[in-house]
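Batch job 17 of 40 flagged for manual review because the log was empty.
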Amino acid sequence: MAGTTTNGGKMRRGVRLVLIASLTLNLLVLGVVVGAYVKHWRHDGPPAHLSRLGPPHIRALPGEARREIGQAIRKGYRDPDRRAAVGDIYTRLAGVLAATPFDREAVRTVLSEHRAVLAEGRAQAEDIWLNRVAEMSAETRKAYAERVADEAEAGRTPYRHKADKR
């Protein structure tokens, strides 16, 4: 690499200054980002976590129960028959949306079928949850009911608004 160094392998003063300035700028940007993150965490609490998503009766469940229910729900959504039904519904929806003249009732019929498929999935999720609750002892169920009430009363969402801070 002839021509990149002078004075017996020493770095030019200008190149050294540019590298120092670049490093300084990078450290300043890193400091601003980390500082903003820490400030947000300190004032608003830790960043929202996915465990804060969902209705109160699900958030009140222990972590392993939420994971088990979530896995069962995802398994249901991956069912090939269900996926085929949803795909067929969207194909028909695209067809009725493109039709001329626009047929409002045809769209409503397809949307109703879609709603029925979604309701089926929701009913399966409710059954999974209900089976889990039915397995609880009376004492465990009572403690769970208190957590549900606490979650409902808190009315927390995973997204905090500055006006909510008090």
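Reviewer: the log was empty due to a logging misconfiguration, but the result itself is present. DSSP finds six helices and no strands in the chain. Unflagging and moving on to job 18.
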